[in-house]
């Protein structure tokens, strides 16, 4: 089993920045994909960004391109999400997830096997 712990959520004004981290432990997935997903109240969980391991291929939802950046520490496999120019519509619970498979749909939540508990991000206008 893989355990994932998200850190770094909080409240910020619009235009501000936050950096999320996701620390894996247990049977760490060293190949495949890691991704960030978010879920706002009353909404479905959606893919935000994903990164392939190894290789570092990155994928982003259109709504965050140019504002968010995903990265991964190659030693600890800790996952990061740098979020800049935050908007109120970015408010959601953010989840980290991982899969050992090279899915053709890296932003599709159904393709991920292991999930963290989430961290809340709130952006005020």
Which descriptors apply to this entry?
single chain, 125 residues, mainly beta, four-stranded antiparallel sheet, 11 strands, 51% strand, globular
Task: Walk me through this protein's architecture.
By secondary structure, the chain is mainly beta. The protein is 0% helix and 51% strand. The protein contains no helices and eleven strands. Strands 2, 4, 5, 6, 9, 10 and 11 form a seven-stranded mixed beta sheet that branches. Strands 1-3-8-7 form a four-stranded antiparallel beta sheet, with no helix packed on it. Strand 4 (32-39) and strand 5 (46-53) form a beta hairpin. The radius of gyration is 13 Å and the shape is globular. The N and C termini lie far apart (40 Å).
What's the average pLDDT? Answer: 96
End-to-end Cα distance:
40 Å
**What percentage of the residues does DSSP assign to strands (E)?**
over 45%
Total number of strands: 11
Q: What is Rg?
A: 13 Å
Shape: globular
Secondary structure layout:
Elements: E1 2-7, E2 10-13, E3 18-26, E4 32-39, E5 46-53, E6 58-60, E7 68-72, E8 79-83, E9 92-99, E10 114-115, E11 119-124
Parallel strand pairs: 2-11
Antiparallel strand pairs: 1-3, 3-8, 4-5, 4-9, 5-6, 7-8, 9-10, 9-11
